[in-house]
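The methods section describes the discrete structure representation at length, but only in general terms. What matters is that the chain and its backbone geometry are given together, residue for residue. For illustration, here is how one protein appears when written out as sequence plus structure tokens:
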Amino acid sequence: MNPREKKEILNNLNEREFRQDLIIPLLSKMGYLAPIEYHGTNERGKDIICFEYDRLNEQRFLSVVAKTGDLTGNAATNSGLMTIVNQVQQAFDSFYEDLYNMRQVFINEVWVMTTGKIVSGAQDSVINTLRKSNLDKQIRIIGDDRLIHLIDKHFSTYWNSNSETKESVVIQRDRLISFIESLLSANNIDKSTIEAVKSSILYSEFNPRISKNIEGLHISSVSPYSIQLGKIDTDFDDFIVSKTYGITSRIFQEAKKLLSYSFIDIEEVIEHANKISKLTNPWEFVIETQSNLAGDYPFHRAYGGASEFMNKISSLEEGLNELQLFKAFLKHKDKLDWVKELAKSITDIIPEIEKIIENSKEEEIIINYKIDNTDNKVLIEYNSNSDKVCFTSKFNRIDIKGFERNKDGTLKPARVIEFALFKFREYIETLLQYDEDKWLKEYED
């Protein structure tokens, strides 16, 4: 089933079907406990409530705000994302009656889930609003693309639940019978017995009986893709029990199963990480990391390198939001291409910067920059008194304790270029009279 067909299924859902038939079972399959529909007049931003246990074995409550259709930036309608923000804030501000523990608890995290798409610009303006009240890290906005990915990963049978034909059921049956035949053959069962077992499974009114046999072959690991058979040395294949763990062969089999399960978990995370590392779009990189890695080891409650990575993702997300807003302003002023070209030209003067650093004998290195409007380039202006100077950078020539310098305290040309780009950004903001708060309000409207 292709993405277009999946989106069509989602678009045909009403809100009750969305909550009861999709979100609640999806949350269960994702590992959340006791998902319950809380929809009603007193819901206060809590369509669905569930919880999970963190690594300290403490409950963390999740609230889901469920909507059907596209979410827009129009604050005057029920389909406006800003309207939903008010529900989200209510979810954090009001307690939830936990019927299982007979106590009042507050929500730790909120997901806004919709069967449609998030209209361009709506999510960014909402996140900026939430950031002012420090709620942006506790909110996840899940549109149709992200929702389809979650369903594919955790609840893939949902897509075929209402469309199974007689032919598809026959195919599934034949596949299972073939699997049983292969499993019996691997245990060296003769062909006539295999045929008798298959016939019994297909036509008998009684379910096959399973008898446990500790001796000989046993199943050492099971996954959705394979069943592995194993043996145990004869010295340990007996019924003399250990006071600590009981029958050796049983505990040996269980340990092997757990070992294989642990590798499956690691392999899945590595697979996700490899796919994400190949992305070229920073926004997709952030979204995919938060969707597929943030909840898994070692990125959940991360430490060490994983912690630094997740911190970098947070910085990247925040920076992309800020940069998207600024670029929208430049585009509004019809200056985006111009600024891009000038910024790129700054990186082209790195050979000139290297010569200045190498030949300078002064205690302080001062570099002036001007804009050549003829060729749309930023150039170095060597006359400090020239009225063409647009911005200036100053550095101590030697600073042993300086930030991002060589071991001998000298400047790194790349660091000088990066600083020049920051000064250029300040110059453009002043030149075009950029006011972030004022533009944000205009951008949201």
Q: What stands out?
A: The first strand starts at residue 33 and ends at 37. The chain has a mean pLDDT of 80.
